[in-house]
Automatic annotation (TrEMBL):
Its cofactor is Fe cation. InterPro entries: HgmA_C, Homogentis_dOase, RmlC-like_jellyroll, RmlC_Cupin_sf. Residues 345-368 are annotated as: Disordered. This is Homogentisate 1,2-dioxygenase.
Length: 421
């Protein structure tokens, strides 16, 4: 994030002495300064002041990651993946957001996983790229070295690469934490066209800085009722020769990771709620880029929110059939009314996979049925990738196997309204 924040105890000048409170006449010991910066320290960065040397480890071991293998979508077909079938209700209490993720789709630029969690996660950092975690349902506390967030339904949690953090779900028998995890091999940021040359969100952007929630910090071990000297394991996802080029390591620290007394800069985690996205509408159908919320290298993230639709007197509110020739389109259906998919099996918790090279659009009858509709009551998160996605073990496990034929069944039948997919 490009705007500057400062939290906690920092010195007046960067890269100068910053000491603990003096003990008697002797000066206090120095805090340890860490510069956390992107793109070889030529882009956004933050300075963190630690009680302990941040490089310290006393042991390391292999973290055996969940299955990261992928299978090509070949022969090329559109697919329907039923994510709500991935987790047995009885197992949720012992599942956490970090180790419990199941890989749904992935390529060399981005991996999409899903998890339903009831247990606190280990401390974790992703050393490969930024993460954008969409909270589908439930509530949690996310604790990071920058501070903490209380997150709930509809929140995007954007966590920069190498940020040590953990997820603590709020217990619930009826509404467990459901998280849709987008892991980049790059950074994730607002689209460049929304930003001034200095990084301010512009007037035409569908959200602004006021909509972004900052971490509540600084956060120290004693603030969460834990010992600053507690030996702690941190799970690290990093580049290697495993499936998808991803491997895991566990580092053991001789202290608690929450030891940052202060920090400042333009690189930090933040939260944005989908309900604060202001949809861009028009007299005729608006193309998917108006729904974009974030971007990474070779992929974009869009969201489709409840909105007024096309108001030209001859408008057809549902999208035309389209071939996105450069992208795979991955739509995660979160909430609302998906009448345009009636007869296809799509519903809440579904993911549709529309691969590049295959034209797609509304189900039969939906085009005519949408005429005269004034608004769409739908909520979905879409990821478009500019390299083909392959199926992970989670995606393979819940592929309904029938979706590709859904445009053929009842081609002259009736349908309803809307949806971009």
């Amino acid at each position: 994030m490009a705007h500057y924040l400062a939290m906690g105890s920092i010195p007046p000048k960067r890269h100068t002495q910053h000491r603990r409170p003096a003990s008697g006449e002797a000066p206090g010991e120095l805090y340890y300064e860490e510069l956390m910066g992107e793109e070889g320290f030529s882009s956004d960065s933050s300075l963190l002041y630690h009680r302990n040397i941040p490089s310290t480890t006393i042991a390391s071991a292999v973290w055996e990651l969940p299955d990261q293998s992928t299978t090509p979508n070949h022969p090329l077909v559109p697919r329907h993946l039923k994510l709500h079938d991935l987790f047995d209700a009885a197992a949720v209490a012992g599942t956490d957001v970090v180790t419990g993720r199941r890989l749904v789709l992935g390529n060399g630029d981005v991996r999409i996983s899903y998890v339903v969690a009831g247990a606190p996660s280990p401390w974790y950092r992703n050393g490969i790229g930024d993460e954008c975690v969409y909270v589908e349902r439930g509530r949690a506390r996310v604790e990071t070295v920058f501070g903490a967030f209380e997150v709930a339904e509809g929140d995007y949690v954007v966590i920069p690469r190498a940020t040590t953090h953990r997820w603590i779900p709020e217990p619930s028998d009826t509404d467990p934490l459901r998280a849709y995890c987008i892991e980049a091999n790059s950074h994730i940021a607002p689209p460049k066209r929304y930003l001034s040359k200095y990084g301010q969100l512009l007037e035409h952007a569908p959200y602004c800085e006021r909509d972004l929630r900052q971490p509540d910090g600084p956060l120290l071990a004693e603030h969460v009722g834990e010992s600053p000297d507690a030996q702690t394991d941190v799970l690290i996802k990093h580049r290697g020769n495993g499936p998808g080029g991803v491997v895991g390591t566990v580092h053991t620290l001789p202290f608690h990771p929450l030891d940052v007394v202060g920090w400042d800069g333009c690189l930090y985690p933040y939260v944005f709620n989908v309900r604060d996205f202001e949809p861009i509408t028009g007299r005729i159908h608006q193309p998917p880029p108006v729904h974009q919320v974030f971007e990474g290298w070779n992929f974009v993230i869009c969201n489709f929110v409840p909105r007024k639709v096309d108001y030209h007197p001859l408008a057809i509110p549902v999208p035309y059939y389209h071939s996105n020739v450069d992208s795979d389109e991955i739509m995660f259906y979160v909430d609302g009314d998906y009448e345009a998919r009636k007869g296809s099996g799509i519903g809440r918790g579904s993911v549709s996979v529309h691969p590049g090279g295959h034209p797609h659009g509304p189900q039969p009858g939906a085009t005519e049925g949408s005429i005269g509709v004034e608004g769409f009551d739908e909520l979905a998160v879409m990821v478009d990738t500019f390299r083909p996605l392959e199926l992970g073990e989670g995606g393979r496990a819940v592929d309904d196997g029938r979706y590709a034929m859904s445009w053929s069944r009842g081609a002259a039948g009736s349908g309803g309204a809307h949806s971009e997919g």
